[in-house]
Amino acid sequence: MTRQREGEQAARRTRPAPGRADRNPLAALKRRFHSGELGSVPVVLGLLVVWIIFESLNENFLSPRNLSNLSVDIVGIGLISTGVVFVLLLGEIDLSVGSVSGLAAAGFAVLNVNQGVPEGLALVLAVLAGTVIGAVQGFFFAKVGVPAFVVTLAGLLGWNGLMLYILGSAGTINLDDQGLLAKLTGYYFTPVAAAYGLAALGTAGYFLASYQDVRRRRAAGVPARPLGEIVLRTAVLAVVSLAAAFVLNQFQGLPLALLIFLVFLVGLDQVLRRTPYGRMIFALGGSVEAARRTGINVDLVRISVFMVSGTMAAIGGLFLASRVTSATQTAGSGNLLMDAIAAAVIGGTSLFGGRGRTWSALLGVLVIQSIASGVALMGIQTAVQFMITGGVLLVAVVIDSLSRRARRAHGRV
Amino acid sequence: MSAPPLLALRGIFKRYGAVQALADVDLEVRAGQVVALVGDNGAGKSTLIKVIAGVDPADEGTVEWQGRPVHITRPHEAQDLGIATVYQDLALCDNLDVVGNLFLGREIHRAGLLDEVEMERVTLGLLDTLAIRLPSVRLPVASLSGGQRQTVAISRSMLGEPRLVLLDEPTASLGIEQTAQVLDLVEQLRERGLGVLLISHNMGDVKAVADWIAVLRLGRNNGFFDVTTTSHEQIISSITGATDNAVSRRASHWETER
Ligand SMILES: Nc1ncnc2c1ncn2[C@@H]1O[C@H](COP(=O)(O)OP(=O)(O)O)[C@@H](O)[C@H]1O
Ligand SMILES: [Mg+2]
Question: Where is the composition biased (Basic and acidic residues) (chain A) (predicted)?
Fold first, then answer.
């Protein structure tokens, strides 16, 4: 430690406020860059670039209609991707999420349409099927010791087979387009107050929580964020959320699907960052052996994480089925799996485990769906979409790897 | 001496596959005593630490805590007795910050949510009393230097109210000043009446702070020495096996103790 840093530290100890480096935003960003803690900065920049490019190519891209559709299109994959974030935090992978999502949709369709089970019950059973599948895969990974990618690769094939089997010869089952499931992605809160209210509520909630935190920190005499920074963050959140509400209100209002997605993101973010359970997941992603030595039940946490990813895959699959009001043989196949994993990684969740947030699923899936939507608007072949998305994913993985290297190099300074 | 030892190990065996890491090992640590555990690389020192910490329980043998037989089969059971451990490889999670590592597995929570403020407050207070300086307790430990990481691991063991502290080469990556600081800490622990089991390769350090020196050789006891009456050469020859005096040394140890 240099003498200067010691001096800074001593100053910080006596005065409960972050040091100079943290207060200057540019300096803080630079420090984060060099220590490999970039977080969501690259993906936000990337998203802006994608939007600017497509808007300059086609002025319908940022139209309320297109953006509103985008906000519903992201939900299915986004929910699946949120579950993938949990698995990636362990440094593992779940290749079965696409097949599980298709199976959940098919299971719901068979139960509801063919067997006459009430929609609500069928929905719950379909989601629980995802949970059980996750538990089974987690068991083979944690207790039997089969590598996760092999277990879930078997799952990818097996659950897809089961879906084709229960769909039977008919192949496609159409769902009730006035039913509960169809409403999941078809319902909009049309009063403008809904979208604005949610934006205001979210912003106010964020501010109050941050303010409360500062007050508690000051009372306890530990370093707190300067109030100015909280005001700035709140202002950014207010602008972004009110702008989103404004755009959504220009079309049909606040989509129910988006609201549900946001509730999952906030809730699971709290679980990951603010509960002992979430801390265990991060610990396992950092060092399994260190986690074990502190007495964490490694097997149980591993199994539970695969249960989360199975559950989220099933829920996402139901939203995807809701979007097309049918369960088809192609559900859960194609690019879905890759998109769900890519979204998490593009959003800033590390492939190496131990780093990530649920919000990366939102940001990443926004990038991926924006590219898909822009390409579709312009009538270019999907081949181009694949190439662009592939390029973006490569950039994201490169950033991930470089940050990891930066962190390691930094650790040896 | 009537009070039973804080920790007593009797006839400990531990095997890893084909390797007999520990065979018939006995050891005692009394409250207010520093016992140095020395031996060549691969002698089984770290294995013995993991046995006591409940991380890799023994295959055979008995463990007594204050004279009572106990079964330590999980890390929590050792922690609950008041055994704190600094592992040779530190066992830190690089992605978690200092506070997260200190409280890992025993987080403070309010209504199910982590109480980060309280944990940070306790952390800052603890680092202050240990005179440890870190750039920030909110940085991932990956961004700390080797010496700083070691001090984090040491302060983790001081959290709570340990009765026995196991230190596996705690000064390995520390500079001169920090090493002296750790040795001071060990003496403080002894003065507070804690038991300390210290592994070190540095004979100077061992002689400076230890009351007793237990030698392991090839997974077996090879002597238990009173620091004040034993020469440097005697210890070295015990470590290297120049004198295979396990039986006689152990016998004389029991005589002086009882
Ligand atoms: N987890 C393990 N798996 C297999 N062998 C191990 C393991 N841990 C230690 N050993 C073996 O046990 C012996 C003692 O190791 P250790 O206790 O680390 O020695 P020391 O700490 O005295 O240098 C060595 O031969 C080592 O290879
Ligand atoms: Mg060792």
Answer: 1-11
How far apart are the C-alpha atoms of B87 and B105, rounded to whole Å? 16
Question: From residue A366, how far is each of A172, A360, B195 by CA, in Å?
Answer: 29, 10, 57
A104 closest CA partner among A125, A126, A121: A126
The answer to whether the Cβ–Cβ distance between B133 and A222 falls below 8 Å is no
A313, A101 contact by CB (below 8 A): yes
Q: What is the pLDDT of residues B46-92, one digit of tens each?
A: 999 999 999 999 999 999 999 999 999 999 999 999 999 999 999 99
Q: Which residues contact A398 (CB under 8 A, 6 or more apart)?
A: none
* C-beta of residue A74 within 8 angstroms of C-beta of residue A318: no
Find, in chain A, the residue whose alpha carbon is nearest to that of B54. Answer: A293
The pTM is what? 0.91
Interface test with B, best of A14, A294, A350, A410 (most B CBs within 10 A): A294
Q: What is the mean pLDDT of each run of 10 residues along chain A (413 residues)?
A: 39 38 62 66 91 93 95 97 98 97 97 95 98 98 97 97 91 92 96 96 97 95 92 96 97 97 98 97 97 96 98 98 94 90 94 94 95 90 86 87 76 42
> Are B95 and A286 in contact (CB < 8 Å)?
yes
Whether residue B200 has its Cβ less than 6 Å from ligand 1: no
Task: Pick the ligand that lies closest to the CA of residue B216.
Answer: 1
- Measured between CB atoms, which of B91, B128, B146 is closest to A293? B91
